[in-house]
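Entry 14. Ran structure prediction on the chain below.
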Amino acid sequence: MLPSIAAFLVFYGLCFGLQNKATFLHGKTDFTDGLLACTYCTGFHCGWMTWLMFWGTTGSLPAEGWHNAASVAIWCFAAAAWCYGIDALVKYLEENS
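Output, structure tokens:
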């Protein structure tokens, strides 16, 4: 199953929150600092977190059979691309307003 519009909002909201509001995650290790500095990387991880939240709140997996593994990957890469694209758009609008 492909992510819904609500999932895309969760992707970016979670990504933005982890990168800009969860200050307790910053300064721990070089790995976490590098991950949080990269919108694409953080967005990827927001994809599987959102997939798990969907599963936990609905009580059903987003797909059946082997599609479960594929749906996790689809959600991860969709979230990564979406978060990167929205972040680039927001930065562009901030710089050119």
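Residues 5-95 form one domain. Will compare against last week's run tomorrow.
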